[in-house]
Amino acid sequence: MDAFFTFLFGTREGLAVLFVGGLVVFGIAAFLLEKRTGQLYVDRGEDENGDDGFWS
């Protein structure tokens, strides 16, 4: 176990594994949260007068 932690935190390759693993975990979490948000807030399209925002 000590060799594993030494590899992860003591070498460039280990830090690269941690970095890429963090990106993958973050990407999966963002994908799942975006999917959940899309189900919660449904896109209702444009208004009857065409306004789609505060500034238009």
Question: What would your notes on this structure say?
Answer:
It contains two helices and no strands. With 56 residues, the protein is mostly helical. Helix 1 packs across helix 2 (12-40). The radius of gyration is 22 Å and the shape is rod-shaped. The model has no long low-confidence stretch (mean pLDDT 86). InterPro entries: DUF6724. Keywords: Membrane, Transmembrane, Transmembrane helix. It holds the Pfam family DUF6724. The chain crosses the membrane at residues 15-33.
What brief labels describe this structure?
56 residues; mainly alpha; 2 helices; 68% helix; transmembrane helix; DUF6724; membrane
The secondary structure category is mainly alpha
Radius of gyration: 22 Å
The run of helices and strands is: HH
Low-confidence stretches: none
What's the overall average pLDDT, rounded? Answer: 86
Q: Quote the distance from N terminus to C terminus.
A: 60 Å
Report the helical percentage: 55-70%
Total DSSP helices: 2
Strand content: under 5%
Number of strands: 0
Question: What does the largest sheet look like?
Answer: none
Shape call = rod-shaped
